[in-house]
Amino acid sequence: MATDDDALKQRNTLFQAISWLGSESEPSTPGTGGAEASDVAKHLRTLYSTTRTITTPGGVKKSVTKISTAEAAKALGVSQRTVQRWLKGVHNPKQTVMNNLKKKARQAVTTKRGRQQMVRRARANQRIPMGGVKVSVTGTQGPRDYSRDRTIQQKLTPEEYENFRSAWAMGGDVAAREYLEAVLSEKYVDDWKIGKISGMSMNGIDAGDDRSDPRASR
After folding, report:
1. Number of helices (H), then strands (E), in the chain
2. For 118-138, how does the pLDDT look when each residue is reduced to its tens digit (9 = 90+)?
3. What's the CA gap between 69 and 80, in Å, rounded?
4. By the 8 A CB rule, do 156 and 183 touch?
């Protein structure tokens, strides 16, 4: 039976996957702020992140998420240097600022308006690969009457991924999960049901990957 903690984890998991397609965060400079600095970074990343594509020394392209300290500073009414100090743990924001950050981050996930804003931001910062997206889902799932904890991977076309994002923006994690169930039932295993999502990731697929099997390899 799902608990409030399960629902919160699922909500945050879907938010992370939809907000930062196939990306990883740039490392921050260690500081002395401890958990407080970590919380600040988490909220700022939720609200003011941008994604850019880089090429590794090995020639592999990947997306990296970075907090826009300039945008955060403007929105919060402080200097960019102040935001940078928060992230390094040199200083902590005032409690009123921290409370405001928490409220904005919560609204970004739990309200329709917040989700729509985050999807618009994701569309502006992310380019969906021509080959589509590989979604990895961990949780209690499976064909009807045979649900268990497992991890599956599935290819989504650019159109399917965009529909998935739109479903989340309009109806939250429930609508996103139902859309994903419909896609998996059609392309993976008939009558696929997802009871609970504990982990999810999205990664782009090379346009040259023309395998006929729609399921993504592990």
Report:
1. 7, 6
2. 888 878 777 787 888 889 999
3. 6
4. yes
